Amino acid sequence: MSTAAVVTRRPVPPAIRRRRMLLAVANHSVAIALSIMFLLPFAFIVSTALMTNQQMGSLSIWPSPFKWSNFTDLFEFFPFWRYAWNSLLYAGLGTVGVVVSGIPVAYALSRMRWRGRQLSFVLLLSTLMLPVQITIVPLYIVFVRLGWIGSLKPLIVPLFFGDAFTIFLLRQFFMTIPQELSDAARVDGANDLQILLRVIVPLAKPAIAAVALFNFLYCWNDFFSPLLYAGNNPDTWTLAISLQQLTQLSRGILANLQMAASILFTLPVIIIFFFAQKVFVEGVTLTGVKG
Amino acid sequence: MATVTVRPPAAPEKARAVERRRRRRRSAWRRQLVALAFMSPWIIGFCAFYVYPILSSLYFSFTRYDILTQPVWVGLDNYTFMFTSDGRFWTAVGNTAWVVAVIVPLQIAFAIGTAMVLTRVRRGLGFYRTVFFLPTMVPLVAAALGFVYLLNPGGPVNAVLGFLHLPEPLWFRDPVWAKPGLALLATWMVGQTMIIFLAALLDVPRQLYEAADLEGAGPLQRFRHVTLPMISPVIFFSVVIGVINGFRYFTEAFVVSKAGDWDNPVGTPQDSLLFYSSHLYNQGFEGFHMGYAAALSWVMFVVIMVCTLLLIRSSRRWVHYQGGFR
C-alpha cells in the first residue's frame, strides 16, 4: 500500500526538495539551540553538585575529580529524611483530601440537575482567580487561635474541603462521559452515590490520576504556605523550606552541597514526570484551552 | 367548570395528578438535598476559606492588630498610610508592574516562538517538547537556588560571558540587574505556557494558511492575520493568568533575596525584588501588622477583580473565538 502511494505521488522537483531540506535543517538547528539553552542550567547544576570545595572557588566548569560523596555528606548537614517525610505527609494526605472531597462536588456540578448549580460553578471558578495571599491574614489568625501554627495541620486540613482547580478539571472530564451510562444504571435502581462510585469513578480513573499527580507535585513544591505555617518549628519544615533555610542552618554552606540537596529534592519530580509525561502534557492542554 | 367537579371519575384522576405532582416535587427536593450533600465539602470550604476570610480581612483592614492584643479600630488609617506615606508600598507596586509589563509579555512571546519552532520540526517533536517542558517540573525553590548559583558573580554564566568578552553583570547583587535575572528564570520555566500555545497552534485549520498563501500573503502577514487571531483566546487566557501571577509573585524573589544570608530583608538588593506579595508577607508575618496586611490583601483583591473584569470586557474587541460563541 505504502509503495503504491509512493509510486503514484508526483516526483518533487529537486529545487523544491533542496529548499525543504534547507528549511528542515534551519528549523532543527533553532530547536537544538533552544534545547541546549533549556538543558544548560541542568548541566551546570549537576556539575556543581559534584565539585570539591576547592574547585568551587575556581572558574572551571567541569568537576575534576567527581566528588560523589557530596550526596552523602549532605545528610550530615541537615536531617534530610525528616523533611522529606514532612513533604511526603503534606503531599500525600493533601492529595487524598483533594481527591476524596473533589469527586462528589465535581459529580454534582456536572451530572446532577439542581437549583444553584450555575451559581456554585461561577463562584468556584472565581476562587480559581484568587491568590492565597488574599485570604491568608484571617486564616493565619484562626490557625493561631486553634494552636495549629508549627504543625502540618494548616496545610493539610483545608485540602479536605475541595480544591477549585481539582474540581474544575474533574468536572470537565465528567462532562465527557455519556449520559446514557448513568441513565442505564438509574433504570437498574442505582442511586447517585452508586452511579458515582460504580460508573463514573471507574471511567474517570485517568482524570483522577492526573489530578492526584498535579496536586501531589503542587504540595511537594509549595513554598509560601509551609513557610508561613511551619516557619518557626524545624520539626515541621518541608523539603522546600529546608532547602531555602540551609543557608541559615549552617552559615556558609557551600553551593555544591546546596545543589546536591536541590537535585535530591527535584529528582522524584523528574522521575514522576518521565513516567507520566502524557498525563502532564494533556492535562496542561486541557486546563489551558478550556479555561 | 362546575360540571367537571360533578363528574364522578374526575375526582380520583385529579387527586392522582396532585399526588403525582407532589411526588415529583418531593423527588426534586430529594435530588436537591442529595446534590447539596455532594457539594457539602466545597460549600463548607468556600465559606470557611473564602467568604469568612475575605469579609473578616475587610474588618481587620480597619484595625491595628498584632495578634497578641485586641484589634483597635483605626478607621481608614491603614489605607491612607498605604497610599500616602508607605514608600515601600509604591516600590512594591512598581516592581510588580515590572513583572506584569515585562516578564509576562516576554514569557508569552517566548512561548509562542518556541511553540512555533516545535510546529515546524517534523521529526523529534516528542524529544524537543520534553526538553522544553522539563524546566517547569523543577520545584520553584530549587530552580531559584539554581539560578542564584548560575548567576552569581563568579558563576558559570558570567564565566561564559567573560569568555565571550561581554559585560559581566552582578545579577542578584545589583538592584538594576536583579529583576532581569528573575526574567531569565521565568523564561527558562516557560514550558507550561508553551504547551498551551503549541496545542492552540496545532488547532489552527490548515486551509486558512493555504487560503492566505493563495492570496499572496507573506510569512509575516500570515502570522499577523491568521495565526494571531486564531490563538488570541489563549493569549487572552495567558494575560489574565499573568496579571494574577504578578500579584502572586513571591517564592522566586524571596528565595533569591534570602539566598546570600537568611537575615537579608525581603526585597534584597535594596528593595529591587520587593514585590506586592513580599511586602504583604513582610508586613503581616515578619512585622505582625495584621491590620495593615489585611488592607494590602483587600487592595489586591479589588485590583485583581477589576483587572479580570476589564480584560474580559476588552477581550470582546480583540479575542476571536472560533465558532463565534461567548
Structure description:
- The complex is a heterodimer of chains A (291) and B (326).
- Chain A is mainly alpha-helical and 291 residues long.
- Chain A has two domains: 69 residues, no CATH class; 212 residues, Orthogonal Bundle (MetI-like fold).
- Chain A contains 16 helices and no strands.
- The longest helix of chain A is centred in the first third of the chain and has 36 residues.
- With 326 residues, chain B is mostly helical.
- Chain B has 14 helices and two strands; from the N terminus they run ααββαααααααααααα.
- Chain B has a two-stranded antiparallel sheet with strand order 1-2.
- In chain B, strand 1 and strand 2 form a beta hairpin.
- The longest helix of chain B is centred in the first third of the chain and has 51 residues.
- At the A-B interface, helix 2, helix 5, helix 6, helix 7 and helix 12 of A face helix 2, helix 4, helix 5, helix 6 and helix 9 of B.
